[in-house]
Structures are given as structure tokens and as C-alpha cells.
Amino acid sequence: MEKARDIEGELEFMRDYYRTGKTKEASWRRSQLKNLQALLREQEAQIFTALDQDLGKHPGEAMRDEIGTLIKSLNFALGNLKEWMSGTKAKLPQIALLSSAEVVPEPLGLVLIISTWNFPFGMSLEPLIGAIAAGNIAVIKPSELAPSSSALLAKLIPAYLDTKAVKVVEGDSTVGEKLLQQKWEKIFFTGSARVGRIVMSAAVKHLTPVSLELGGKCPAIVDSLSWSWDKEVAVNRILGAKFGSCSGQACIAVDYVLVEKGYASTLVELMKELIKKMFGENPRKSNSVTRIINKHHFLRLKNLLSDSRVKDSIIYGGSMNEEHLYIEPTILMDPPLDAEIMTEEIFGPLLPIISVKKIEDSIDFLNIRPKPLAIYAFTKNETLKKRIISETSSGSVVFNDAIIQYAADTLPFGGVGECGHGKYHGKYSFDTFSHFKAIARRSFLTDFWFRFPPWNDYKLQLLETAYNYDYFELLLFVLSLKRPKTRLSYI
Ligand code: NAD
User: Fold this and answer.
1) 372 CB less than 6 Å from ligand 1?
2) Which of 20, 83, 141, 444 is the most buried (most CB within 10 A)?
């Protein structure tokens, strides 16, 4: 199913397979997760090559952000699958005396995963782990902008996973649109807000639930740290989360930095020093600088700097090479806030530093802008930390590090507001691809006669007691056999 031809027939074939119940079996889910793990381990070299061809990504970065993270997620899913599948006990109200209840997860069915080019394996396979763990069948549409990775996924997935249950459909937006016309039980989309809107409109037709993992501008608030060690650790982490992770082409990359005016020069000097440590005197020669994905995005980034006011704010870097899709790690000091670089998601190695009078002003700065996918704050000030948690809204908040939240199996990963909705990773992925079915069981032995018409004032009182008090009080009331006085005037 490399091409989108005869999609309907292929999907019907998959649905028939789903109806056999095979994918609901714990043993099937477990074997598929193990096979996926084998794929990542055995085909590591091919994956490194594909990521190098598409993005010039170093194997170290590929291991940290994609292969390693995925293997870790698979270990977590395999270790917890039994518990996730077992459901949870629940209770019926006491009006249903002698009863039991539980919540049972069931798979949704056929799900569509549309993914991006920046982490082509991570963005395709991380949701797939949840979809398989929850017992679904899935179609993955990788991004056409990372063609080597997309082709490798299309080659390896059928070689390792159950071909009747997991398919890869390669192609561009027209293929994406064709897929969106089909009926899915869930669409899990990672990408831009623009396409997110197209996905959501298409989902309306079949009332399909969607998860939208979108982007935004993630700020790093940097408080004036007093120890040189703290400063160095903080700046290293910020640079790593901007220039050292897909060259800033990541949804949770640090988009810009907020810092007190008086501390800005200290911060910038340290940044310059540590950029050299990471990428050498001439970053263009470094094999640790991931390339811009294509000419379109290169020109988009170049265009962000074309505004003369923005150009004038460059204080470090700024060189670029179109042929090699290379942009030097670049720092800008106080570019105008109405320039595109400060109103749009940057998604590249350009780092604006925005100075504020007091670091607490950052909170107001953020609150008049769209909610970010992540807020990073480098501070030891506990009051500021509390204020950031309680007074701002974002997909996540990380203190004194950045991007690390993506690797957590026990934290929900997802956005709020314009950076998307829905959450995944670990149990949240399992839940995202599950329906939680309510199961209630009653005994025939007991029944409260006052649950049924004909209604009278006595039944009204008993119902009120049953819903508001415990069994003992209800029993006393029933045993008193006294007709209670009218409580409501209209009865
Ligand atoms: P994109 O929206 O252009 O494309 C994403 C996917 O949608 C691709 O597979 C593409 O082929 C497909 N697509 C494009 N047009 C389509 C259409 N009309 N119908 C159906 N499918 C269509 O995004 P991108 O350029 O690949 O990725 C960059 C964006 O993704 C950034 O905004 C970034 O922040 C966001 N992102 C978010 C996360 C997250 O986890 N929240 C992760 C990575 C990237």
C-alpha cells in the first residue's frame, strides 16, 4: 500500500481483520511492540542514514531524540501493558444496592496517524506505540518532506509488524487529503495549525475524535542566576534545546528567551562562548548542526531576517548558505515584537532575546500571547515558579531544563489552546487510543420500590435520602415507616 490508490479497499481489508479480534489479544499487542523494538535496534544504521539524508542529523541526536526515546517508550509500554488493559473498579450509587462496576478500555478500531518531517520516526512511531498497545489497527502517513525516512518506514514497518494491521501510506498533502476523506475511529495529527484546521474540518464528517499536536512559540524565562555553574548549566540546556535539537526545528524548541535587561549581556556572552563549545569556531563545518529541511523553509527563515529592524538586532551569527541549507546559530537582541520573528513560530536556529524590566514581567508578556506548548523557566526563585504554574497556561512547564519533558513516560505530552489538544506518551497514549467503556452489574436480589412510579411525596423523600445519605440513614428512614411531611410546596 505504498501509494494511496484503492485506499477504500485496503482499509476495508484492515477492518475485516480488526473484526476477527486478533489485535485485541494481549499477546498480539505485546508481540507487535517487541517487533517494533527489534526494528529500531536491528535497523539503527539505516535509520541513522535516512535521518542524515533528510536532515543532516547526527546519529547522536537521532539516538537521543528518536531511536533511544522510542525504545524507552516501548519498554515502558511493555512493562505496563497488563495493568493498562486491566481497567479499573468503579461503583454504582447506593440506590442500586448489590451491584458492582468497572471501567474497561477497548480499542477504537482503525486510526490514522499523520506525522511531520522533523522527527520522522519519533512523530510516527511514538503514537503508534499507543495505538498498538490499545489494540488498534493503524495507518501512518509520514511527511513527504523527509523522503528517505518516509521510504524507510514504508519498507521496514511491513517487514516487522503485522501487515494486516499496520500500514504506511506515503505521499504529500493530496494523499493526506484523500486519507482524511475516509472514515477513521481516531485521527492523530502532528503538524502545523494550518493543516490541523483542515484535519479537524475533515473529521467533522464522521464525528471522528482528533488529537492535534501542533506548534507554537515556547519561551525560556531566564532569571538572574548567581552561581557561574548554574548559569553555564542553564545556558547549555537552552542552547541544546534550540540549536542542538534539529536546529530549532522542533515544536518544543526554545523559541525565544525572556531576561531582565541588566542580566542580558551576561547571558549573551555566555551563550556565545558555549555555542563555540558545542559547534566550534565555524559551525558550518560541524557535523552536529542539523540542516534546514528544504529550500522553502530555508527561505522562510531567511525572510524572517529580511525586515531591516530584525536584521539590525542580530548580535551573533546570521550567516547562511542556501545550497547546503545551512543557517548559523544566530542570536538577536530585542527584535521588534510586531515583526514576524516574534509573532510566528520560528522553527529554526534563530534565537531572539527579549529584555524585560523585571523577570516577573514575563508572566504578563506570556499572558497576552497565544498559549505556548511549553514554558521553560531557569530560576531558583520558588515564588516565581509558583506564579508561573498558577498564572500562565501552556502544554507543559519545565524548570531549569528544556525538551526533557518529551522523554517522560509519566507526563502527558500535548498542547492547550492553539498549540493543540489531546495528550499522549506512556499511559496517556494508551488512553488516547482507547474508549473507556462503563460496565455496571446488578443483582436481582434487591430493588428499591421507590425508584419507580407512581410517584408520591414519600418516594421523593426516600430518593433524596438515598442520594444524600448513607445506607444506615436510608434504612432508618425506611424502617420508621413514617410518612414524611411534604417537603416541596408544589406536591
Ligand atoms: P505540516 O502541517 O505542514 O504537515 C504535517 C503532515 O500533514 C505531513 O505529513 C503533511 O504531508 C500532511 N499534510 C499537509 N497538508 C495536508 C492536507 N491538506 N491534508 C492532509 N494532510 C496534510 O507540518 P510540518 O511542516 O510537517 O511540521 C511542522 C509543524 O509541526 C510545526 O508547526 C511544529 O511545531 C509542529 N510539530 C508539532 C509537534 C508536537 O508534538 N506538538 C511535533 C512536531 C512538529
Assistant:
1) no
2) 141
This prediction's pTM: 0.95
Residue 187 pairs in a beta bridge with 112, 210
Mutation probe of ligand 1 site: the residue of 113, 114, 195 with most atoms within 8 A of C-beta: 195
Q: Is residue 464 part of a domain?
A: no
The percent of residues in the chain predicted with pLDDT above 70, rounded, is 97
pLDDT digits (tens, 9 = 90+) for 137-188: 999 999 999 999 999 999 999 999 999 999 999 999 999 999 999 999 999 9
Q: In degrees rounded to 5, what are phi and psi of residue 60?
A: -60, -45
Helix (H, G, I), strand (E, B) or coil at 356: strand
Closest CA to 362 of 373, 375, 374: 375
The string of DSSP letters for 441-484 reads EE-SS---GGGSSSP-HHHHHHHHHHHHS-HHHHHHHHHH---P
Report the domain count for the chain.
Answer: 2
For 417-465, the pLDDT digits (tens) are 999 999 999 999 999 999 999 999 999 998 999 999 999 988 898 888 8
Three-state DSSP state, 408: coil
Ligand 1, atom 17: closest residue by C-alpha = 173
* In a shared domain, residues 207 and 248: no
Dihedral, 291, 296, 298, 304 alpha carbons, nearest 10 = -150
Check if 213 is active-site: yes
The three cell numbers of residue 358 are 523585571
Co-location of 184 and 256 in the same domain: no
For residue 174, give Cα distances in angstroms to 67, 77, 114, 148: 29, 34, 13, 19
Per-residue pLDDT band for 4 (boundaries 50, 70, 90) equals very low
Contact 30, 78 (CB under 8 A): yes
Reply yes or no on whether 251 is catalytic.
Answer: yes
Q: What angle do helix axes 261-279 and 228-240 make, rounded to 10 degrees?
A: 60
Q: Is the CB of 470 under 6 A from ligand 1?
A: no
Q: Distance between CA atoms of 104 and 86, rounded to whole angstroms?
A: 7
- Which protein residue's CA is at the shortest distance from atom 14 of ligand 1? 173
Question: Out of 213, 260, 328, 345, which one is annotated catalytic?
Answer: 213
What is the residue range of 409's domain? 219-414
